[in-house]
Amino acid sequence: MADSVVSLVTPLILTYNEEPNIKRTLESLLWAERVVVLDSGSTDGTKSVARLFPNVSWYVRPFDYHSAQWKHGIHNTDITTDFVLALDADMSVPATFVEEMGKNFTHEYAGGVTPFEFRILGYPLAGSIYPAQLRLFRGDCVEISQQGHTQEFSTKGSVYRFDTPLIHDDRKPLERWVSSQASYSALEAKRIAAGNSFRFRDRLRQLGLMPVIAGALAFIRAGGPWRGAAAVRYAYERAAYECLLSIRLMSSRLEKNKKSSE
Length: 262
Known about the structure:
Distance between the termini: 68 Å
Strand order of the largest sheet: 3-2-1-4-9-6-12
Radius of gyration: 19 Å
Structural class: alpha/beta
Largest sheet: 7 strands, mixed
């Protein structure tokens, strides 16, 4: 691993009750001189696990929005390196990614766009419907906006596109996943109902068609029958989320129609 990687990049992780995931993530970041973990008040063993790693700096901030949390992590945790690697707590960084970063990522770039390898309980999928994202960037020039339930990173200047994916493998209990999707779908429904989105998939959501489309597409991209139960579960997850979102949008429309007819 190139020494320049350690000196140029600080990984930043947001956590909340991530005990099932955080150890794998931090084990993949032993190459980093310093890792910043910004927690939202975990009540499980997340902090205890993180404290086992000497390169971890632990911070706490009550959660409001993803965009605000990321901004706080970038600007208020004493990060002094030129670049920040923004990671969810269920993402890990393979050694091949670090090698590519050390070999090809230089100061001429303002950021790096990374693809993702999705895993279901440790089983790798052939692909996913999760798009590549800007996850490596200069902290002093990144722009962060709130998009529905999550954030969107953007930056001006030249961007490097990684060939090596980050690994996304969420192993939190199913009940936690269901609770998260309920919250995420509420925020997405609010964004779509505001009428500021002209994305084609949001129009399909308004029509109630996305559960079938997302489920089928997720199954195909995950590897279909060749990836077995992992691909089926991934398809069900994406369809379930879209079902929740469609139900919320339909309920909102029915409420509006009811009020207008009174």
